[in-house]
Design goal:
This protein is α+β, with helices and mostly antiparallel strands. It is built from 7 helices and 4 strands, in the order αααααβββαβα.
C-alpha cells in the first residue's frame, strides 16, 4: 500500500464528508450519537474481546504498566463511553450560535458565529475511549474527523469504528 496515495484519498473523502456534516441538522447528529451509544452497549462483549487481544499483545511487547492501564477497557468504561455520547447528544447544538453581537457605527450588527472547522485530525495512543469521545465531539460540532489511534490499541479501535460507522449511516450521515 502506498501511504501517500492512501492519505490523499482519505483526506479527499474526509473533506467531502465534512461538507455534508457541516449541513447536518441537529436531529440527525443526535440520532447518530444515540445510535452509536446503543451499538457500543450492544457490542460490549466484542469490544472487550478486542481490547483483551490488544492487552495481551501490549504485555507481550513489554509495555509499561501505566500504558497498559490506559489501554484497558472494562464493562464500566464501555458504559461510560456510551453515556458520554448520550451526554453529547443532550447538549445544545453549537453550530450557528452567535455571540458578542455589536452594532457598528454604520448601523450593521456584527458578531461571532460558530461554524464547523471542516476536517479534524487527531493522533492519540493507548486510549481506545478517545476514539469514541473524539468521534462524538466531531459529530456534534458538524465536523469530519480522521482518527489515528496508536498501534497498541488497533484491534479495539477497529472494533469501535464499527458502531461509529453504523450510527452515522443510520442517521444518513457520511
Amino acid at each position: 500500500m502506498d501511504i501517500k496515495d492512501y492519505m490523499q484519498n482519505l483526506g479527499r473523502r474526509a473533506r467531502a464528508a465534512s461538507r455534508q456534516m457541516a449541513k447536518a441538522d441537529t436531529n440527525a447528529k443526535n440520532r447518530a450519537l444515540l445510535a452509536i451509544a446503543a451499538a457500543i452497549r450492544r457490542d460490549e462483549a466484542k469490544l472487550l474481546a478486542a481490547n483483551g487481544e490488544d492487552l495481551a499483545a501490549a504485555r507481550a511487547a513489554g509495555l509499561e504498566p501505566a500504558m497498559v492501564d490506559r489501554l484497558t477497557l472494562s464493562p464500566k468504561t464501555v458504559a461510560t463511553m456510551a453515556e458520554g455520547l448520550e451526554q453529547i447528544a443532550s447538549l445544545p447544538d453549537p453550530i450557528g450560535e452567535m455571540t458578542d453581537l455589536r452594532f457598528r457605527p454604520s448601523g450593521i450588527q456584527v458578531g461571532h458565529m460558530r461554524v464547523p472547522l471542516g476536517v479534524i485530525g487527531i493522533i492519540y495512543e493507548a486510549r481506545p475511549n478517545v476514539t469514541v469521545d473524539a468521534a462524538g465531539l466531531c459529530i456534534k460540532s458538524g465536523n469530519a474527523c480522521i482518527l489515528r489511534g496508536g498501534s497498541e490499541a488497533i484491534r479495539c479501535n477497529q472494533a469501535l469504528a464499527t458502531p461509529v460507522k453504523e450510527g452515522l449511516q443510520s442517521a444518513g450521515l457520511p
